[in-house]
Amino acid sequence: MEVALFIPCYIDQFYPHVGKATLELLEKLGCNVTYPMDQTCCGQPMANSGFERDTEGTTRQFLETFKGFDYIVAPSGSCVLHIKEHQPKMDDLSEVQKEVQSKIFELSEFLTDVLKVGTIKGSFPHRIGFHSSCHGQRGLRLSSSSELNETPFSKAMDLFAGIEDLEVVNLTRKDECCGFGGTFAVSEEALSVQMGKDRLSDHLEHQVEIICGGDTSCLMHLQGIAERTNKPVKFMHLAEILNQAIS
Amino acid sequence: MSHPSQAANFLKDEKRAHWHDETLWFVREKRDLASKNIPEWEELRNLASGIKNHVLSKLDVYLEELEEKATANGIKVHWAKDAKEHNEIVLSILKEKKCKAIVKSKSILTEECHLNPFLEQHGVEVVDTDLGERIVQFLNQPPSHIVLPAIHLKKGDISEIFHEKLHTQKGNEDPVYLTHAARQHLRDKFMAAKVAVTGVNFAIPETGEFVVCTNEGNADMGVHLADVHIACMGIEKIIPRRADLGIFLRLLARSATGQSITNYNSHFRSPAPGKEIHLILVDNGRTNQLAREKFKNSLKCIRCGACMNTCPIYRRSGGYSYGSTVPGPIGSILSPGIDVKKYSTLPFASTLCGSCSDVCPVKINIHEQLYEWRQEITKAQGWTAKGMSMKMANGIFKSPLAYKISGKLLRSTLKTLPNSVIYNPLNTWGKNRDLPAVPKESFKEWYQKNRS
Amino acid sequence: MVSKKQIMSSKELILSSIKKLSQEEQPLPAVPSFDESENTLETFQQSVKNNKGTIISELELVDLVNSGAYPKVYSGSRLIPDLKTFELPEKGTDLNDLDLAIIDGQLGVAENAAIWLEDENLGLRAVPFITQHLVIVLEKSKLVGNMHEAYSLIGSHYSGFGVFIAGPSKTADIEQSLVIGAHGAKSLRVVLV
């Protein structure tokens, strides 16, 4: 199975270790992983700012780079959601676009639904809080949302279930937004920071050592606030924990 | 004023903002409990959405049927193309009845039409009878929430204004004491009013009746004691059959406050002997919204307010930060349809977290419409991506650290993105947040060295 | 001669702007009945409590009426006849001193304690709202599980006014504190017969 690795631009620049963990994890699970060198940004920041129409170049580049693989996997729910739902329609590449949109997966979704690994076996003796990114949760439906009357589920928790000594706390507000929101983080700075502080408090009140999530953008925002206010908590992407834990 | 600056103001009093957030979250939690007691909840949402989609697709037919049946029932039906005409219709009825004072129960439509100031200019005293609305009316404020009009006020604030207006004991903040003082005060108003105005929750063409829901009983106190009942409704309030009320009444109160039903659900079909009912059907921009394919289903809204209670932005910025009659997520997709320039910042007052869409009892895809409005607004406002990033670039040069990082970014992979819109305004980012440490090499650089 | 080009009325304007959209008609879903609660009586009683109402017996009602605590009592009940009452006035406003009203309900809904009343039960529409305290008498056999069943029983039966009442008048407009007795009846007692 040939898997193309899509590493979102901010992970590439600021969190290369998340990219490495994703790559190593997929390889440990038997995938033949390629990182196409011509990849750039997915265009989400532009589109969410109201300039979807100006992302045709980015989209064309993305489609050309990622066509032809069996699967495309990214350690970000947010960017995957953008590719699936908010790319401008490319008339001359409509077949390629349809194919790419159906073959791209967020990491936990890929492990659960495509590789069907069930759970990851290993050990990770820590107490963590899991931050569900909204785009992953309500966009890609990676876990049940508290608003809906549905049987609770979580792809990340399924993956964690087989990891020994890993303790995941029950947050008071299990799926409230952290306030990152892309450009929202700067255009509504005061609100964004307040939302982040509140989210952080929920985790800290439950004495977590590590805040884990499937979207580095949310974690970057929460970590930025935690560091500014000297909060004793670490941040790790889902891929890092799984990659460290796996035996 | 834009939403960001209003929100920043609201957040200055951090303790109060926190209280506001917790208070509304409490309502959201009650709603969760109530909805989870109904095994068929999601099916009810699907049905409600389907029924509303159907109504919107043949709204003209249903409006005519409603008029015909209601008229046959003895209700006088009026049509108003806009707020001005609506207000004039109300005033003309009052003039005909030589009425100088009215009681009014909660109606977001009359807020939208600014009926109160219009009537007051024409010498009519308007008394809002919903407790929350009466409180904000004393303070000359509009409601800050469509279901909980005074949710932004603390009991101390209310005690003070009641002391001034109703001569209650100074410093007595007991909600029971204050509510009963309002009960006495408003009872006198009910006894004296010849005309009562209400909103409409649902109108049924099948039977020619309309339904008004309250917990306090203020709508009924008003209309049954007055000689004339004027009911004002947006043309989207229709549901086809009486049986459909079963679905909507199960959804409405549970979504709004977590109650299993509102206390009083009154079905008005014919006036009582010797009395009159007037029903005003108001467009005021609704047919324009109906013509917008991407946004028309915002008209499915039943005004339960659940999207406000769940919205992490609304809870932390308050209803007034939106500057529109209907605040919160639903307001942010309705308001730009009324005035795209005035409300241009509202669709951006969201992280697109999607909670509003999941909580909505009629399944309006609110967050997706927020995204779509952003696309429309940048076009309508003539904003360009280049202009935006230039503005942001201006910001970066003020901060050497930001410059260093963005320089690294610009040198890197973002070739086809017209500069980076998101990562440039780093000095704003850094006001209350640290920047991530800049690693020695990017993932791409590492991969090139180690893997290719 | 009347000019052919007349100004459109608002009605015509609104209807024509909808018609010109030539929308494709969306299907109207049928309303299923859904499963009703198994123990309708128990569920109804619990719902009354949840809504801050109380259930009392017929005997307790008679005691209540005779206790003298409520100087002015109106009863329109046929289910419990011969209760103290008086002839209703013409105007609702003349009932401002009404202390207790006793009326019959037509059916009760277990899931939310909503009780359906029509003009014929009320005498005057103002009665259940203006009275300080309200008693609704309801036959146990008239309990249904949910709102769907309620509406299918009500059908399109004509009454100029109909209302579901589910509890005493209440508000939470002051800091979300629940207060009973906003404008309407300060208490609701339900007698099941």
Task: Name the features.
heterotrimer; A: 247 residues; alpha/beta; Rossmann fold; 2 domains; four-stranded parallel beta sheet; 13 helices; 10 strands; globular; B: 452 residues; six-stranded parallel beta sheet; three-stranded antiparallel beta sheet; 10% strand
Structure in words:
Chain A contains 13 helices and ten strands. By secondary structure, chain A is an alpha/beta fold. Chain A has a four-stranded parallel sheet with strand order 2-1-3-4, with helices on both faces. A four-stranded parallel sheet of chain A has the order 8-6-9-10. In chain A, helix 2 packs across helix 13 and helix 11 crosses helix 12. The model of chain A has no long low-confidence stretch (mean pLDDT 96). Chain B has 452 residues and is an alpha/beta fold. Among the domains of chain B are: 38-284, NagB/RpiA/CoA transferase-like (Rossmann fold), CATH 3.40.50; 390-450, no CATH class. Helices cover 51% and strands 10% of the residues of chain B. Chain B has helices spanning 3-12, 14-36, 41-57, 59-72, 83-96, 108-112, 115-121, 131-138, 155-166, 175-192, 218-225, 244-256, 286-290, 306-310, 312-317, 328-338, 355-359, 366-380, 385-396, 400-411, 426-429, 443-450, and strands at residues 76-80, 101-104, 125-128, 195-198, 202-204, 209-214, 228-234, 264-268, 276-282. In chain B, strands 1-9-7-4-2-3 form a six-stranded parallel sheet, with helices on both faces. In chain B, strands 5-6-8 form a three-stranded antiparallel sheet. In chain B, helix 2 runs antiparallel to helix 12 (244-256), helix 3 packs across helix 12 and helix 16 packs parallel to helix 18 (366-380). The longest helix of chain B has 23 residues, at 14-36. Chain B starts with a helix and ends with a helix. Residues 392-405 and 410-423 of chain B have low confidence and may be disordered. Chain C is an alpha/beta fold and 193 residues long. Chain C has a single domain (33-81, 94-192), classed as NagB/RpiA/CoA transferase-like (Rossmann fold, 3-Layer(aba) Sandwich). In chain C, the strands form three sheets. A five-stranded parallel sheet of chain C has the order 1-11-6-3-2. The longest helix of chain C has 11 residues, at 40-50. The mean pLDDT of chain C is 94. Chains in contact: A-B, B-C. The interface between A and B is large, with 76 and 78 residues.
